[in-house]
Design goal:
The structure is a homodimer of 373-residue chains. The first copy, chain A, contains 13 helices and ten strands. Chain A has 373 residues and is of the alpha/beta class. In chain A, the strands form three sheets. A six-stranded parallel β-sheet of chain A has the order 1-8-5-4-2-3, sandwiched between helices. In chain A, helix 10 packs across helix 13.
Chain lengths: 373, 373
C-alpha cells in the first residue's frame, strides 16, 4: 500500500460593517466592498421589493461611480428558495461575462442572500460576493454568517454550502421600509440571543420594545440592539464557522421550528416559527427544573409582547416529535437541544422524550390561556 | 461605523491510498474508509458500467460486512454531467435518511466522482464521501484532488466546489476492464505531468509504452506510473488546493482543450482534447524558443504513439483564440498559460497572440504531416 496524506488550512476572512445609508453616493462603503472601477461591469441581484423601494437610488449610486451595473430583480421569499432560483442566478452571472474575481452584490433578505450565496459559492467554484441584508433577520442572523442554502424536497436548507462573503454591509435604514411583521420576525432572533446568552440584550429589548418597533430600529436603542445581536451571533459563529461542533447555542428555537415553518406553508415566517419553538423549549426547560418558572413566563411574555406567536395549531406533540427526529438526523444522531437555564444562559440536553414533549405542549397551552395572550 | 472581522482557518485533510482489489472482502480498506458498522445504512453511487462489471462483487463486499447497502447505478459520461444528475444524487441520498456524518461512496470515472463530489459538498452543506476512481483519469487526476463540478450552459465544470473526500482508494484492478481508448485517455494526463514537471515519468512512459498499455497498468511499471503521477499531481495540488494561485502547471494542456472538448460534442474524450492542446502548446513553446525542437517533436511523437490525437479539425486558429479568451476569464483576466521549457520543466506566458496561435496551428499540421502520424 502506497499512501499520501493531504492536509491544508484554508483561510476564511470577511468583514461585517454597520454603516449608514449605504446607497448614498457620499458613502463609498459599497463601492469599495464591490471593488468598483470606472467602466467595469458589476452585477447586483436585488430583491424585487427592495428594487421597487430603493432601485432608483441603487442605479444612481452605480451611475455615480461610473460602473456598468446590471441590476437583476429577483422574487424572493421562502417559496422561491429553490433550485430554479439558483439556476436563474447562474444565468444572470453567466450573461455578464465578468471576470472570476469581480464581486457580485446581493441586496435583500435572508432568503435571497442565502440563495445568491449558494450560487456564488458554486459559480466557477466560487465567485466573490458582497452581502447587503435588508431585513432584520438578515442584519442580525442570516446575513452575518457564512451559511448559504436553498430548500429541497420539502426540507429547509437541505442543500447549501459554507461560503463567506467578502464583506457584509449592515444598514439599518432598510428596516425603515420593512413591514412591522418582518420587524417582529427579526426580533425573534434577537430575543433568542438574549435568552440563550445575553441577559443584557434581553433586558434592553424588554425595556424598550415599543420604541424599538416604532422606530423600526432607526434609533440609538436600535443600533445598540443590532450591535449586541451581531456581537453575540458572531462570537458563537466564529469558533464554529463550519459547524464541526453540532452543539450550537444559536440553534435554540431551531429544534422544532424547521418542520413547523415548512408545514405552515408560508403562513409562519422563520422568526415566528422560531418563537413558537422557543416558547416550547422554555417550557421544556422549566419542566426539567433547568429554568426558573419566572424566567419561562418572562420569556414567553416578551415573545408575545413582540407580537410573535408562542403557540400554533401545527405545534402538536406528534409534529414536534417528528421535527425532533429530523433535527437529530442533522445533528449526527444526537438531540443537542439547547435549553435555557435562566435568561442569558443555557445548556444542551440529549434525552427529550415524546412524553415530555407532549406534556410541554399541553403546559404551554395552559400558560397561553392563563396569560390571556 | 461599527465593524467586526471574522478570520478562521478550516482544516482540510484527506488520504489517498493505492490499494489492491478493493472489492475483495479480505481487503477492509473500503469498509474502514466508509466507516462500515454492521446493520448501518450506506449509499454507493456507482457508474452503471462499473455496476455491470463489478456490481456483484460490490454487493458481496457489502453483504460480507453486514451493512445495509443501497447501490445506485448512475449513467455517467460527459453528457450526463448535468444539473439533473446532481439533483438525482440528492434524491438518492435523501431517500436513505442516513445520518449527517455517514459517508457515501462513489465508484466510477472522473465525471461521476466530480458530480457526486458536488452533490456531497452541498447535501446538508457537506456529506462525507469516499472516492473510488475506476478510470485512469480518475486514478491520477480527477480522483485525487478536491475539485468537484458539473457542466452548465455549455461550459465545462462551470458549476462546482472544492470539497475533499474523506478518503480516495486507488485500485489499478479497475483499469483491467477499461477499454483501451480510456487507458490512452488517462495516459494523456500522465504524459502531461511528465512534460511539465517530471522528466523521469516521461522517460518511463516513453520506454514502456507498449507494456503499460498491454498490461492495462496492472504491472510493476503500471504501479510506478500511477505512483509517480499521483506524487506529481498531489505536490502541485497540495499547495494550491483552492486555486488561489491561478498559475498552475497542471493546467498545461487545459488552455485550449475545454472548448475543444465541448465543441466536439462527445467525440473527443477529456484526455484526447488535452493531448491536442499539449501538442499545440509544445509547438507554441518551440516557436518562442522556449522548448528545444527535439523535445517538441519527442513530445508530439509520444502522444501519437500513445494513440492520442495531436491535431483536430476543430482546433482552428479561430476556435483556439476563442478558447483562450474563455480561459482568460477563468484566470482572472490573465493567460497564465503553462508552456514547457523542455521535457520536465515549464514556465508561464501571458502574451500569446492570435497570430502566434495561427502560426502554431499551421506548424503543428506540418509536423503531423512530416511525421506521417
Amino acid at each position: 500500500v502506497t499512501s499520501w496524506t493531504v492536509r491544508q488550512f484554508e483561510e476564511v476572512s470577511y468583514q461585517v460593517r454597520r454603516t449608514h445609508l449605504v446607497l448614498n453616493p457620499a458613502n463609498d462603503a459599497l463601492a469599495r466592498a464591490a471593488r468598483f472601477a470606472a467602466g467595469s461591469r458589476r452585477l447586483f441581484i436585488v430583491d424585487w421589493q427592495v428594487d421597487e423601494l430603493h432601485g432608483g437610488q441603487l442605479r444612481e449610486y452605480i451611475h455615480h461611480f461610473r460602473v456598468k451595473g446590471t441590476v437583476v430583480p429577483v422574487r424572493s421569499g421562502e417559496p422561491n428558495k429553490t433550485t430554479n432560483t439558483v439556476l436563474g442566478i447562474f444565468d444572470a452571472i453567466g450573461s455578464l461575462k465578468i471576470n472570476r474575481r469581480d464581486p457580485i452584490t446581493v441586496i435583500g433578505g435572508g432568503v435571497l442572500t442565502d440563495v445568491v450565496g449558494l450560487a456564488a459559492s458554486l459559480y466557477r467554484r466560487g465567485t466573490p460576493y458582497v452581502r447587503v441584508p435588508t431585513t432584520l433577520v438578515g442584519l442580525i442572523d442570516a446575513g452575518v454568517g457564512i451559511k448559504t442554502g436553498m430548500n429541497y424536497n420539502g426540507m429547509k436548507n437541505l442543500i447549501g454550502s459554507y461560503y463567506a462573503p467578502t464583506q457584509v454591509l449592515l444598514d439599518p435604514a432598510f428596516i425603515r421600509t420593512l413591514p412591522e411583521r418582518h420587524i417582529r420576525n427579526g426580533l425573534a432572533e434577537s430575543i433568542k440571543l438574549g435568552i440563550i446568552l445575553d441577559r443584557a440584550l434581553f433586558e434592553l429589548i424588554d425595556a424598550n420594545l415599543r420604541e424599538i418597533i416604532d422606530s423600526h430600529l432607526n434609533s440609538p436603542v436600535g443600533d445598540e440592539l443590532i450591535d449586541r445581536s451581531v456581537d453575540g451571533m458572531l462570537n458563537e459563529l466564529r469558533r464554529n464557522l463550519w459547524e464541526r461542533e453540532l452543539r450550537r447555542l444559536v440553534d435554540f428555537g431551531h429544534t422544532f421550528s424547521p418542520r413547523l415553518e415548512l408545514l405552515s406553508n408560508g403562513e409562519l415566517l422563520h422568526g415566528e416559527a422560531v418563537a413558537v419553538d422557543m416558547a416550547l423549549s422554555c417550557v421544556l426547560a422549566g419542566g426539567r427544573g433547568l429554568m426558573p418558572e419566572d424566567d419561562v413566563i418572562r420569556s414567553i411574555v416578551l415573545l408575545a409582547r413582540a407580537g410573535l406567536p408562542v403557540a400554533h395549531r401545527l405545534c402538536t406533540p406528534e409534529q414536534c416529535s417528528e421535527a425532533l427526529a429530523e433535527t437529530v438526523r442533522h445533528r449526527d444522531g444526537n438531540q443537542h437541544c439547547p435549553l435555557p437555564t435562566g435568561i442569558g444562559r443555557a445548556c444542551f440536553v440529549e434525552d427529550l422524550s415524546g412524553g415530555e414533549i407532549a406534556s410541554a405542549v399541553e403546559q404551554l397551552t395552559k400558560y397561553v390561556e392563563s396569560m390571556e395572550l
